[in-house]
């Protein structure tokens, strides 16, 4: 069992204990978080579904991120991550949403937002939310894998 599988298993146990359904919104991880969650036997009991919102247009169309958020803060920002998570809750029956948006590289980084910058948002409907960001090192695969691990760890601590 790899570390993502262990984390996803823990997420599933906690979600099931609390009666939560989870939705995911992913940009730079391209569905990897949803894949990690659905590899767990019985995940249909607690995983509602996910959105892959790789482009700015898909963020606006699929989870109703306001264009002003993207224009003012950028797609890789705390504001965008929160809007993505809230959009997942608006568009699903989930109780909990997690959003990931970042720059996996190798290109696309800036001085302000270097390659490896990833923002996360975790929201429990009508209860609580939290955000976090990291600048991960490593190549594209490593950044994406670390992002999935952080998203799962964040769900565990949120529960």
Compact overview of the structure:
The protein has 159 residues and is an alpha/beta fold. The protein has helices at 3-18, 32-38, 56-63, 67-73, 78-90, 140-158; strands spanning 22-26, 47-52, 96-102, 117-124, 128-135.
Describe the structure.
The chain is an alpha/beta fold and 159 residues long. It has a single domain, classed as CinA-like (Maf protein, Alpha-Beta Complex), CATH 3.90.950.20. 44% of the residues lie in helices and 21% in strands. It has six helices and five strands, in the order αβαβαααβββα. The radius of gyration is 14 Å and the shape is globular. The protein starts with a helix and ends with a helix.
Number of domains: 1
Average pLDDT, all residues: 98
Straight-line distance between termini: 23 Å
- Main beta sheet: 5 strands, mixed
**Strand order within the widest sheet?**
2-1-3-4-5
Share of residues in helices: 40-55%
Overall strand count: 5
Q: What is the assigned CATH homologous superfamily?
A: CinA-like
CATH topology description:
Maf protein
Report the top-level CATH class.
Answer: Alpha Beta
Strand content: 15-25%
Rg value? 14 Å
Overall CATH architecture: Alpha-Beta Complex
Order of helices and strands: HEHEHHHEEEH
- Please tell me what the overall shape is: globular
The assigned structural class equals alpha/beta
- pLDDT below 50 for ≥5 consecutive residues: which ranges? none
Summed up, the helix count is: 6
Strand-helix topology:
Layout: H1 3-18, E1 22-26, H2 32-38, E2 47-52, H3 56-63, H4 67-73, H5 78-90, E3 96-102, E4 117-124, E5 128-135, H6 140-158
Parallel strand pairs: 1-2, 1-3
Antiparallel strand pairs: 3-4, 4-5
Helix pairs in contact: 1-6
